[in-house]
């Protein structure tokens, strides 16, 4: 069950290890005199100049030389917010007060998570949002003195809001100065904007930038972003507060239930040719579907899809809330207003593509596996099935899967 997979992305990237190393160095910087630090630092660097150069590049990349954001001395910023966005998502040895404060975050030992982003951590709204022919646009600027611990923070972010149809909204946060990877999926390109949408989007600049999507008919907020927005070169994070904990989807995972757990459960998505194994629940699996369906209290449903194909993890918190963390691409969200669950799924597949109609013959009995290393061995299996009177329409030896596969 990947909800226990606190290790999450740490399995796939060394950023967390690098981070720990960097933070360990930062910790040392705090406790010892600078002379002693640099003394021991260079004593460690007995390697070549190239190695030292590379290390400096790494440290600079992780913000070693920039002033960390500082929530200390500002108790207002650390009053427990209604949603606590984990500032030490990698957990483990890093989960200490020192590391927490060094990241400019707030520490409350008794809480889960103990280390969380202060109010107002993120981006400031730059000027006024402007109307466009398809919706709205607004520029954001990274707040000064609040670097993320991940390095390469994107300083200026563009938020484009598209009122695509009455039931479909798209919100795209991207870097206007540098092209980043976007999933090459052809998506509908609406002209103009929906005239009578089921939703309303509002932008807030209080503390920091946030946006809220509301279901107009019920005046209900269905997705309201919280503190801790990060868009950096290799780490993007956004938290949304949800109207109900009836949340389904976010496959492929091995959580043994349809209604997802929201006790800070973590689902990791990074596809790999690997079947589910109940004994190793944190493993990555075949499919990646960063889509959930949420049923609101009155039975209306909506769906949220993050169009991003990088390795990601999604944490569901008790408020309830959802936190997306991904290591690349952009934050490109689609909201589907349903309101029936069937309508939500139809609206979703309208964007990602419908499943195809399977051919009639493919509905028959199949025998499929890897390990048929020669044509003769495949033939033997077919004959064995025939001899035993087992009906069979297809016996496809899987491509690229010969021998022990
Ligand atoms: C402390 O944090 C609050 C809430 O984010 C903010 O409004 C205020 O300006 C901060 N005060 C200082 C001195 O930074
Ligand atoms: C956002 O920034 C760009 C580039 O500086 C500018 O052309 C555009 O007018 C800005 N948009 C808004 C809504 O301020
Ligand atoms: C959430 O609850 C489930 C079931 O009660 C439990 O197995 C799991 O460990 C919990 N997860 C976390 C992160 O607390
Ligand atoms: C496959 O089986 C046929 C018939 O039994 C035999 O003649 C042939 O040598 C076999 N081929 C291989 C590569 O074993």
Keywords:
405 residues, carbohydrate binding, globular, alpha+beta, 3 domains, hydrolase, disordered N terminus, glycosidase, eight-stranded antiparallel sheet, disordered C terminus, P_trefoil_dom, membrane, 18 strands
Instruction: Report the strand count.
Output: 18
Note the beta-strand portion.
Answer: 15-25%
Radius of gyration: 25 Å
Q: Which assembly state applies to the chains in this document?
A: single chain
How far apart are the termini?
26 Å
Identify the CATH architecture of the largest domain.
Answer: Sandwich
Instruction: Report the uncertain regions.
Output: 1-69, 401-405
Bound molecule types: 2-acetamido-2-deoxy-beta-D-glucopyranose
What does this structure look like?
GO terms for molecular function: alpha-1,4-glucosidase activity; carbohydrate binding. Belongs to the glycosyl hydrolase 31 family. Its main location: membrane. Residues 76-119 form the P-type domain. There is one protein chain. The protein has 405 residues and is of the alpha+beta class. The protein has three domains: 8-116, no CATH class; 126-135 and 157-352, glycosyl hydrolase (family 31) (Immunoglobulin-like); 360-405, no CATH class. It contains seven helices and 18 strands. One 2-acetamido-2-deoxy-beta-D-glucopyranose binds at residues 127, 130, 137-139. One 2-acetamido-2-deoxy-beta-D-glucopyranose binds at residues 74, 76-77, 119-120, 207.
